[in-house]
Structures are given as structure tokens and as C-alpha cells.
Amino acid sequence: MSFDRNQTPRWRHGYRYQYEPAQKAHVLLYPEGMIKLNESAAAIGGLINGARSVQAIIDELDQRYPGVPELGEDVEQFMEVARAQHWIELG
């Protein structure tokens, strides 16, 4: 089964993506806690706005970081993990 890049991710209700100065990193806040994101996850997360498709996110990252091998697959993998962890919804 292949990943549909036309899907649009959005953060689930109660989840908020932001920069946390105390952590010196982007984080995902939710009622039960906080997830510190690595640099790659933060770059992807910063583009999730409920309007951009996965393909649009890949295209934007490709412009910012040209020549990164397997960028599309990395974004797909993030989306799958984020959905499995219930951070995002894909629609």
C-alpha cells in the first residue's frame, strides 16, 4: 500500500506545535505532556497547518534543502509515525 501524498495533515485537537526556549527546541505540547522534536521533525512540523498537503510540504522542504536524498520518503515516514502516535490526523 502506497502513501497518499495528497492527504492534508493537521495537528489533533489539544496538540500545539511551538518553539520552547527552555528546551531550545521545537516541541509538541499536549494535555498530558510534551514531545521534544528533533531538527528534521521540527522542519516538517512547522509546515503542518491543516491546509498544505503532504506533497506541498515535501515541495517546500525540497526548496529549502535541495538535493536531500529520500526527502519524500522521510516526510512520509514522519506522517505515519505522527498518525500512529495520534499527533496528527490525515484527511
Automatic annotation (TrEMBL):
UniProt cross-references to Pfam families, sorted A to Z: PqqD
Q: Which keywords are on file for this protein? A: PQQ biosynthesis
> Which top-level group of life is the source organism from?
Bacteria
| Pathway annotation from the record | Cofactor biosynthesis; pyrroloquinoline quinone biosynthesis
How does the record describe its quaternary structure? Monomer. Interacts with PqqE.
By sequence similarity, the record places it as follows: Belongs to the PqqD family.
| Free-text function comment from the UniProt entry | Functions as a PqqA binding protein and presents PqqA to PqqE, in the pyrroloquinoline quinone (PQQ) biosynthetic pathway.
The name this protein goes by in its record:
PqqA binding protein
Species, as recorded: Archangium minus
